[in-house]
Write a structure and sequence with these properties.
1% strand, mainly alpha
Amino acid sequence: MLANRVSRQKPCHHCNHRPASAAPDTSTIHYEKSWLYRHCSSLVQGDRQSQKAGQLFSGLLAMNVVFLGSAFLSSMIFNHVAITLADVWILLSILKVLCVCWIFYYLLGTSRQPHAVLHRDSHAGPIWLRGSLLLFGAFSVLLNVFEIGYSVVHIQCKSHVQLVFPCIEILFVSTQALFLWHRSKDCIQVQHNLTRCGLMLTIATNLLLWLLAVTNDSIHKEIESQLRDVEQRLAGNETILCTCPNTTACEVFQKGYILLYPFNTEYCLVCCSMLYVMWKNVGRRISHHHASHIKPKFKLQGVVFGPLLGAAAVIIGICVFMMYQIQATGSAPSRQIFVMYYSYYIVLLPLMSVAAVIGTIIHALEKRDLDTLKNPTRSLDVILLMGAALGQIGMSYFSIVAIVATDPRDLLNSLILSYSVLLIFQHITQNVFIIDGLHRQPFAEAIEARHTGHAGQHAVGSEPSHEETATSKSKQEHTQPPLRKEEELKEERDHEAHNQRRVSVLELGQEIRRVSLSYIHTYSHLSWKRKALREISFFLVLCNIILWIMPTFGAHPVFENGLEKLFYGYSTWFAIVNFGLPLGVFYRMHSVGGLLEVYISA
């Protein structure tokens, strides 16, 4: 029966196309796939095609929105009469309202459907990125509050409609920040096309807000730089400009607005990166192996020299930054302050480059396997690192051309030339180190944790039990006769309080000693490769933090030194700086996250 049933099955195409002269293979017989397998494979193929079609359609939607907004912004810059800033704000307000409506629909409708979120991407939305999102979002909200206050002070010469735009911006920023904080890890499984279109519309809106922020930043810096010349030309003429009745309030709103403005550009870039990861995760099904992978936690163990050197770089950088800001806000920065500023960079950048090169060599020497699992977050990290580095690299090449063509022998010019070359090399070496580290699988932490636990238990067990001693003493005191005088009771209470304080101090010393022994034990059990990688990563984290702080809070010597501005012209160099500087700030912030990932995996 079985032989007859097998003989009636249809042979597959491998057997039909076999030559007649070839001997039949009796060991294996190829049969056609079952109808269920063919049906399931066609369903999988159709699902992939629909996913690609949805991504293509949503991408085209975002591209058209960005092109439309860019046309409005370009028209505003080159033709102030036809297209004004108010027209651009109207377009952006419409987009922001649509994005807020979609976010509320996603939170209240899509995400609450049955089987909507079956998987969550553990790599998406790390805590440092979500923390920076909330920080930049809070500063962006405060920026709009300052803008509302400044408009209220000048209400006699400004339109009441201008107060509506910052209010819509506050609603959009707050809603989007909370949405990304709670839902950045979602792999949504329902309403794929609507979710993709909503995410891409939000990405396009953030890109347009970033472009507008760069444009407005260049305009208000240009006004600020030429303020003294304008005041001298307008001296003696009748006042046509909008004057502020309260000078103190105007100065507070203006200074706060200028100080908080760079955070708005960073907020838009962070939102775009997180929204893109969500867009890639729409309809994604994470395998069991990928979901069960436990990510190591951040532990400040096994590092000594990296934090010390990094802290020294941060402290010196803060001192240089404060001296530069005092000079820049009081009057025009002197030549000596520029020499000091660039000298700090010339000393720090080679140290960072050497550390990154050593780390890359260690990555080549170690025998860790590559992580080949599909990870949209890691792919985006690599793209952002390479793309954001183009901002500072492009500005450095413009500075090199300007200095070589003018006077490279001058002291300040030679410092700027060295700074530009070292900055390019530092970006390249650091990108190679971070990208190579992100593609490595983490070390096994079980043996290390076991050694640490045994060391902590041994340290605790070797200490005498002071608490039991104090308890036995208190029991002996309570067994004394009950008839006591008030003075004896008071002395007994004082003695017990003293014993409790003594026990608490001893417990604190015991805990400190246990933690110290555990730290030393952990550090001694690490291999020299892991020690070096952790030291290098932590040192580079602190260096990138200080290099993020200095340009973010107002130190812009690339524009204020005047060399490139005279060579390229005021407007051209302004456009180069305001395009490259936000990318440079974003690069430093994103490098911190990548270096922390390298540190944790080591």
